[in-house]
Amino acid sequence: GGGGISSDGSSTHQRPVRTLEQLDNTPVLAVAMSAAAENDVAVGHQSGALGVADVSASSPPRRLPARAAEVQCLAWMPPAVDAVDARSAIGILAVGSRERAVTLWTWDGERTSLLTTAALPRCPPHLAESQRGRLWVALAWAGHRRLGESSDDLSGDATESQTRVNDETFARLVVASHGGELLWCDVRVDDGRETTSGRQETLPNVHFSKFAGDGHSKTVFGISVRGNLAVTTSLDRSLVLWDVGKLTRRWSVAGLGGFAYHAAVDPEDPRRVAVACGDGSVRAHVLAETPNDDDHTHEVLTHDVADAGASTVLWRGLPQTKATRLAWRPADGPAAVALGDEAGAEPASACLAVGLEDGR
């Protein structure tokens, strides 16, 4: 599309708040709303143009000095649970681009600074030539953790610097790489504050590591994180669940009736995942509980659809178009109340919105 449009969901009838000015004439490929500042939105173009705008203000989007490489995915670091005031926190924006790198930017509402650029690992030699050029750098944040806290939040092969006891807070970033590989890295939250305030002299180093276990065999296009779990969709027509704390694969589901364009987790039942499939249908998979992983940290569990639980075709689709985006009605919070009945009651049953390729 040309520019991004924000809608006001606080009233009974949604209305456009503002149409953002275009950064250039190329299509917008990625849009991300900040979780820390509700009016901040990041927009990325096919040309590589990247900007951040305050939709409540009249000023044009602030253009970031990004490289001319197609912006493929945007994700704001979520605010820490124990943050005193999320609105005053420094925002960190992760950008996945066609230059085979992840760039981290800071944003304080007025100023933006480059935090670091981390190149993806080299393409594995076993990939065919056609796969080498088919890279989509999808990414998603997986919450915060304090290093030195032991639990299941850290992998068994953590480095010495990761296991020392301290008060530093890190956010984990999950990134798709070559040939379906899934990577992760930990980003120190204070790096954003120091960079924006000008106190940091050198850019922080970000190192990627691989998740354990075989995952996808082709390009990953979507990553959805809920709690300590991540679901990925790929060109190989499979759905894979990952444990973000233990950095291992839990299970995979194949036979989705085509490429999985998008997957959305039901907020009322985290075991229920809706998938927009390449054959035009929307399917819901109720995922089976896995065995206790305490003694099987690196065990790889693979299930067929029948073994993974009930699979239901929610919608068979319409001719000449495909379902490419899904969104469950919120289960709680202000958004759920706003979408409830006239008395303000929350919805009694799950409701799923479907976005089609033709714009409907």
Structural write-up:
This protein is mainly β and 360 residues long. It has a domain at 5-210. The chain is built from 4 helices and 24 strands. The chain has helices at 129-132, 160-163, 189-197, 334-338; strands at 5-8, 15-19, 28-33, 40-45, 50-54, 62-64, 71-76, 91-97, 101-107, 112-119, 139-146, 169-176, 182-188, 209-210, 220-226, 229-234, 239-243, 248-253, 260-265, 272-277, 282-286, 311-315, 323-328, 352-356. The strands form 7 sheets. Strands 3-4-5-6 form a 4-stranded antiparallel sheet, with no helix packed on it. A hairpin with a 4-residue loop joins strand 4 and strand 5. The longest helix has 9 residues, at 189-197. The chain is globular, with a radius of gyration of 20 Å. The model is unreliable at 1-7, 153-166, 291-308 and 341-347 (pLDDT under 50).
Feature tags:
mRNA 3'-UTR binding, 360 residues, WD40_repeat_CS, mainly beta, single chain, four-stranded antiparallel sheet, repeat, globular, WD40_rpt
